[in-house]
Amino acid sequence: MRYLTYLARFYLTRRWLLALLLLIGIVAAVLEAPLWLLLLILLLLLLLILFRQQIAPNFYPQEEYLVPDQVILSGPTAVVNQIIETANRQTNLQLEEVHDAANQPMRLTFGSLPPAVVDCLSGCYEFASQDFVIVLVRLGGARPDVSRAIRILQQLAGGNRVRVEPNWLTGSPWDVGG
Length: 178
Description:
CATH architecture of the largest domain: 2-Layer Sandwich
Strand content: 15-25%
Order of helices and strands: HHHEHEEHEHE
Distance between the termini: 36 Å
CATH class of the largest domain: Alpha Beta
Number of helices: 6
Shape: elongated
Helix content: 40-55%
C-alpha cells in the first residue's frame, strides 16, 4: 500500500511516465502476469492518461461564475444612493437598478426585516442596521466590464463603508459553500 501511495504522489507531480513504468514493474513482479496482459494494461493506462488530458477541466475563469453585467452595492442607504447617482453623472457606467417580475427594485433594506432579525444583525455593523441596504444594479452599454465598474465604484465610495462586489452565481469562489 505504501508503494501505491508513493506512485500516486509521483503521478500527481506530473512524472506520470516513470510512475507508470514503476506500476507495470510492480504488477509484473507481484502477479507474474504474461506480457500481453502487461501491454494491455499499459495501453489502457496510456489511453486513460491521454483522454484525461483532453477533457481535464480548465477550472472555470471567474467571469463564468458571475453575472457579466451586474454589481452588488451594500452599505448605508444614503451613501449607496449617492454613489449610484454620482456614477451615472460622472462616468459612462450607466447603472440602473435591477427589477423583479413585479417591477420592484431588487433592493434589500434591513429596516424592512422583522425586529428579531434586525436585533440579531445590529451588532454586526458599525452603523444602524436600519440604514443598511443591499442593491443589485445592472451595467449598461454594449460591453459591460464588471471589474472596471467595481474599481470605479470603489473609488467613488472611498472610505464610506460601502462594499462593491460582482453578482456571484455561486458565491465567492474562495468560499467552500459560496
